Amino acid sequence: MSENIRNLTILGGGLDGLVFANALRRAFSDSLSVNLIDQPELDVASCITLPPEAVGFFKSQDVPENLLINDHGSGYYLATEYRSLNGVGAKDFFLPFSAPGFVLQTREFHHFYIWAKKQGLNRSYDEFSLNSEAARKKKFYPPSEKKSSLLSTIKYGYVLNAKPLTDFFRASALNAGVNVIEGVYDSAVVAKDGSVESVVVTTNGGTTSVSGDFFIDCSGGQVDLFSSALGVPYLSEKESLPVDSGIRLVLNKNSEESPSYSVEAIEQGWLINTSTQNLQQIDFIYNSEFISESSAVKFIGEGLRVAPETLEKYSLAPGRRESFWRRNCLCVGKSAGNLQDFSFSNAALVQSAILRFIELFPKGKQCDEVAREYNRITDLQYDHVLDNHSLLYRLYNKDTAEFLREGGGNKISPRVERRLALFKSAGRIPFFEEDPFSQDMWVSLLLGAGVIPDNYDVLLDGISPSWIAEQMDKMVGMIDSASTRMPSFNKYLKTL
Amino acid sequence: MWKRIVIAGGGTAGWMAAATLSKLFGRSGYSVCLVESPNIGTIGVGEATIPPLSEFNSSLGIEEAEFVRKTKGTFKLGIEFIDWKEKNSSYFHAFGGFGPVSQGLPFYKYWLRWQKDNPSSDIGDFSIAAACAMDDRFLIPDSGMNAIISNLKHAYHIDAGLYAQFLKELSVGRGVEHIQGEISDVCLNGTSGFVEALQLKEGTRVEGDFFIDCTGFRSLLLGEALKVPYTSWDKWLVCDRAWAAPSPSVDGELKPYTKSKAHEAGWQWRIPLQHRVGNGLVYSSNYLSDEKAKELLVSGIEGNPLSEPRLIKFMPGVREKMWDKNCLAIGLSSGFIEPLESTSIHLIQLALIKLLQLLPSSETNCVNSKNFNREMLDEITHIRDFIIAHYYVTNREDTPFWKYCKNMPIPDSLSDKLELFRVAGNLRNTSNDLFGESSWVSVLVGQGLVPESYLPVVDNPSTEELDKYMQQIRSQIDFSVSKVPKHKDYIKGFVG
Prior knowledge:
Strand order of the largest sheet of chain A: 6-5-15-16-17-14-18
Radius of gyration of chain B: 23 Å
Helix content of chain A: 25-40%
Number of helices of chain A: 15
Distance between the termini of chain A: 54 Å
Oligomer: heterodimer
Strand content of chain B: 15-25%
Structural class of chain B: alpha+beta
Radius of gyration of chain A: 24 Å
């Protein structure tokens, strides 16, 4: 067996590389020395959304929650708000992290909802979700430890303030003995067997060569390691996610409003609104084949009543790498893929990649079996996130969206078609391995967007209709009163 | 709507189907009938089960004590594999895992490291189930018991004929129509090719909307009438026959586990029931004559067989589709892997749960059946790979049979998994694999595949800390075993 990995170099460029460097030192302490090429960050986002899995991730990295919330001014969020997905004037809905309703007589709740819809129920699926109702009322309360309490069903993710978090991880990296090199990647020296021997970095003092047993590209897409040095292509997914540009506005927040996350479908593209305690970030995502950059800037500047100079323009390349671990190199973050920050963010994929890499970290410098396993799982995750996000385009009412109408709609995979077909015919979501979304989240998304299946669980027919109706009314009442009693996020903070 | 469901065949599969579908009564006019020939015997193999059967029973409202009483059942903590790795060796595959999860990592990952310094260590020493089994002890843990004992998971050894009888009474009592008669013809619709009716020898014609083929290996509907081809797995699973014979209970203690003892061209089972012992010798007809196999069975039984041994011929494999048109095959008619890990009854149960979720109508049949076939094939493929691993991963090469098994080509899905484990000590964990990580580890390590390396991520505790940790778990197990009653006494109290 070849010698172990003792020396690892991260091509950084912001938060991802810093988090990765910290996690590696934490897991392997002094048996692994870590270099980090700390390049200037591109397309800096101010607010980062993360699903509930991030709570466990930060815990495992000993990052206390009160540091994120109290010191950094980050926020919690309970559900993603989707606006106008079914066309202008259509009802908005929330995609909650926890399953709505309660299981009744061992049958899943959403079948009762489908059943009730067939009886003419005039309630949204949101009304059965404490997460969604709290999000709608802009309330927050952490999950209760008491299993019997309705509040124990709450599940939250974070909207993080990127700047203080990056500073925190930079300080923590230095503290953990990561060798931080300020510089910019220039090129890689590739050995005969195709593995990377060293990278050439331009620093203030000239150029320097950094060698290593293993290299990780966390540069946010600014480094060309995988394409040119390793010959691993980046596969475009623009047919599935037909956008290529973004415009961002970041504002200081004055309102008392709770942190939130919303995705709004508009005629020209998507408006994504993310806010923490003190910042608000608005991203307009569009397809430059239908709107020029100048008209997009004009449209957004006028719409938000801000000067064009305050808007940051960036390009998007929806897609993913053909392979994520090749030889002695790994890519994560935007170097690995960008499937948009919709219901699952790029940041969440990075956290999952870090944990997976550490778990699979090989003995021996090259381990094809481990790389194959890493790639297999990562590929499946990207498949499912792509499916989920391309489904959002598909659910979006094409007739009102110019950029979708003119492109003839977006492409969806046979997997999404199967999901839609089985949901329509049986109210079920087929099982797929390594799906980052729970079945409940797929159900919430489809029901929220108004896709009502033709059939429901056949065993419901034996249950008394008046009993079901009574149970459902009770649920709505409980959820309404529980969410009403919860404090607003800001009030909750004050109680701490 | 499709309302009349016809079950063809009255063995274990047929009556399990009838009992499950009797839940539909009182719901929008479903009716279920079962056609059974009094002249055709049932195979009735499958006397050993795996843990999920208790969930199935409780979903039918069957009390565990009544079930054990009626089926003359005993409890099963796992399987002892004798002479599989090499002659004069044995290991235990227990239900329930090994020691505790630590730092988010399963116990076996730490054991793989510890084993490097303690090469004679047996991972089975860290299983409470194995410890109880070897001392003929058993109990069903309740919530007040310590964490170690709570790890005990059980299945049953049952008289499958009595189980079918029990379910028959239950089904008929709940309104399933029981028609006695021999099927002489399966009538198909001339244009659609769908099954329209079963023609019985006595002249009766049993019509229905949806048909469940439980006719055993003959597969009268799916195989013969609908001509769905059979995919044979005989190049990987070479055993194709079994002699089965009961023998009297002779041991003073009742063993709470199945024994599987490898022989020159297959293996022999021993399944203890309350009133007798089930025995069977599984072998490959390519490597062993029927006569010789019969002698081998009889010589391996304690005491004399209670009846003349019965020969069962089979071919491991599956139908290309288990659900075609308006016909679903359940049990042996849909395929058969082999009895090694007692999965036959489980596959019946799994198919029935899925059927209830996907009960078709003429509109949804196509989508639902596609999904059913895909999900079932996934599940069965995982089980198939697990069984193949028992034959392929071995040190035995002492007979032509074992020589073949050790050197046969195996499916890619399995070879990838074995390579990853061999090289890196990592198990590809797929969430829809019936056999979880601890089952795979038990069997792979038990069969002699000890990984070359372990994961660097478990390098953290010092050698002394790890020694102490392992010692602690061992003594907790020793302490806990003494608190568990003898299986024989426990059953007496349990059935009353």
